[in-house]
Amino acid sequence: MLLPLRRRGAAPATDPRAAVPARAATVVSLAAVGAVVAVEVLVPGGWDGLAWLPLAAGLLVGLPHGAVDHLVPAWRLHRRPARLAAFALGYAAPAAVAWLLFRAAPGPALAVFVLVSAGHFGSGETAFADLRAGRPVRRAALPAAVLGALVLLVPLVRGAREAAPVVAAAVPGSDGVLPPAVGTAVLVVVLPAAAALAVGLLLETRWPEAAEVGVLLVLVLVVPPLAAFGVWFGCWHSVRHVARVLAADPANAADLAAGRLAAPLRRFALAAALPTAAALVVLAVLWSAADGEGDLLATTLPLLAALTLPHVLVVAWLDRAPRAVPPGVVAR
């Protein structure tokens, strides 16, 4: 049975700012995934023994994509001090809660972290597709769940052996081994659901979205799990999120409406530079202070979860907030 997709008939979005960054992000993400798949298929040995390279590169490349969360309220709340203060508190509180939960109950916290991340990844895909197609961003819970599970849970269960030391380090007393029945259930449910989603998109003549589901299926099934997640996170999810951020920044309206991308990218790079550098410094300190890889992972994962939860909430709010076309920007 095909997955139910969103209803047709919604009025098209009138904001042209997303078109240029969305096209660029699509090209970058497809080219990166194509390159990683080509190495695995065409080069003898593929990524055997080197899967950590695209994983590490992807994590580093993707690090800046959430670095401008602190600017979002100024774009949407018109710099009202009371609202900005409430936003800052609302950002810090979930981060503190996530960190405390991870320290108090690492097993359940890790499970929730994985599920929240999968939901965030999937909803990011459906929101990007809406913006690229000129549709208002709408909730698409089931397609988002399928896409999030495809890009996170499938690599996780396929790479369960490689992930076991990470899980064991994050959850004291655990061997980190995923029960085989869980991995089987994920593959049996998610892979047919993804295929059904692709067919449903084809029937709705949403060709780019259907093709991208096929590309992601090839990625997670052909490329080693660590490499697959690295390239997807760094060159697909993060790049497409940056495209959405560029379109949301009012300072970029005139440039994007005129088809100029270089200046918006410079603005983003400057805004993201300091938070990204701070995150790298923190990681370097943790690395130098860690007593081995296990201790580093046990320290880093709660911090990562603490940063991820407020980022997820900011992106969800960004999707729900109305996007007005600034004066002087002509809809096309």
Automatic annotation (TrEMBL):
Record field: transmembrane:
20-43, 49-72, 84-102, 108-128, 140-157, 177-203, 215-234, 268-289, 296-318
> What membrane topology is annotated for this entry?
Multi-pass membrane protein
Q: Where does Fe cation bind?
A: 65, 120, 237, 241
Spell out the reaction equation it catalyses.
all-trans-beta-carotene + O2 = 2 all-trans-retinal
> Could you tell me the EC number(s) of this protein?
1.13.11.63
Q: Name one Pfam family in it.
A: BCD
Q: Is the keyword Metal-binding in the record?
A: yes
What InterPro entries does the record point to?
Blh_diox
Where's it found, cell-wise?
Cell membrane
- Which keywords are on file for this protein? Cell membrane, Dioxygenase, Iron, Membrane, Metal-binding, Oxidoreductase, Transmembrane, Transmembrane helix
Instruction: Give the required cofactors.
Output: Fe(2+)
Task: Give the protein's function.
Answer: Catalyzes the cleavage of beta-carotene at its central double bond (15,15') to yield two molecules of all-trans-retinal.
NCBIfam families in alphabetical order = blh_monoox
Family membership, please give it: Belongs to the Brp/Blh beta-carotene diooxygenase family.
- Identification of the protein by name: Probable beta-carotene 15,15'-dioxygenase
